[in-house]
Amino acid sequence: AGNDIDIVNTIQDDGAAAVHNNSGSITSVSGGTTTITGVMGSGILNESGTIDITAGGGIFIGGNATDYDGDVVTGALETGVAASGGTVTLHSDTEVTADTAVASTGGTITFEEGAVLSGTGGAIVVSGGGTVSAEDTASAKQVDGLISVTGTGSEANVVFAGSGSYLTGDVEAAETGTAALTFSGTALWTGEAETGLTAYENGEATEDEIGTINLELNDSAVWLMTDSSVITLLSGNGGTVYYQDGGDALQVDTVTGSHTWALDLNYDDHSQRDPIYVANGTSDTQTLVVKNIKEL
Fold it and tell me: Cα–Cα distance between 126 and 81 in angstroms, integer?
């Protein structure tokens, strides 16, 4: 159909959802826009089976909704897209705004085109062996909020490659969960990364509490590192790791490819130096830029 589709959940209950699938299959195809809102609960909740949504004018989940009394509730959804099982596939450009934009606790959520995700409690939260993927290389990904992946088999795979792509938020991986992020073109990541390795090395965590963060930097992409960070792999060819402030450290298990490292040095007491710790290095050429060279 070419018409717009509006789906609104007015039930004021945490477990409510505008689109709720217990099993079986839900398919929606529209040449216009598809808008999904609610006053509480989730926009989309899939427990089993499949949900497939295609909208030529884009998919919009979250934002304001109208309750039973006709009052407008601002930013009401607790979770935009949730999957405890089965698969949710969003085949068109999708915008999600909620406390937690996307949450998989065992299901698979796939964005096949562009994605704009905003969540004050998390943009992408994965646990229980779930998967969230947004890997189209031609469409923009704009993500505001935390990416958190916890638990064996849990994965978040996001490619930031289209024009205007960015991630503003921290990335956390724990308990063998894996976050794999690719930044290409002029994509920008502003945030810090944590796998739990530092706590393990300090005797404050066990080995099975460590997660994996694999970062691929290409072209003119930039990671603006806002605090001390730990990642598992830095790969790709090009890109810059830019230390925002002096006094932060980056620990990387393995580095491959050529990259630029922009950091501060401190001659006097080393308090503002920006160290790099690499366990497994590479013969590929690295470029070091000292941001405060004039002060030395």
Answer: 12
Are 33 and 4 in contact by the 8 Å Cβ rule? The answer is: yes
Which pLDDT score is estimated for 65? 61
Q: Which helix (H) or strand (E) holds 191?
A: strand 188-191
Running DSSP on this structure, what letter comes out for residue 26? E
Q: Nearest-CA neighbor of 66 among 115, 118, 17, 8? A: 8
How far apart, in whole angstroms, are the C-alpha atoms of residue 210 and residue 150? Answer: 9
Asked if 213 and 249 count as a contact pair (C-beta separation under 8 A), the reply is no
Q: Which of 96, 63, 64 is nearest to 80 (CA)?
A: 96
Task: Return the residue matching tokens 């099982």.
Answer: 85
Q: CA 216 to CA 209: how far, in whole Å?
A: 23
Total-model pTM: 0.93
pLDDT means per 10 residues in the chain (296 residues)?
A: 75 79 93 86 94 95 67 71 97 95 98 96 97 96 98 98 95 97 98 91 85 98 97 97 90 96 77 84 93 68
User: SS3 string of 213-270?
Assistant: EEEEECEEEEEEECCCEEEEEEECCEEEEEECCCCCCEEEEEECCCCEEEECCCCCCC
Judge whether 291 and 262 are in contact, CB under 8 Å: yes
In this prediction, residue 51 carries a pLDDT of 97
φ, ψ for residue 208, nearest 5 deg = -75, 0
Give start and end residues of each alpha helix (H) in the chain: 197-201
The per-residue b/e assignment along 105-126, b for 16 or more CB within 10 angstroms, e otherwise, is bbbbbbbbbbbbbbbeebbbbb
Alpha carbon distance 152, 180 (integer Å): 15
Position 181 scores a pLDDT of: 98
Taking the C-alpha atoms of residue 220 and residue 239, their distance in angstroms, rounded to an integer, is 5
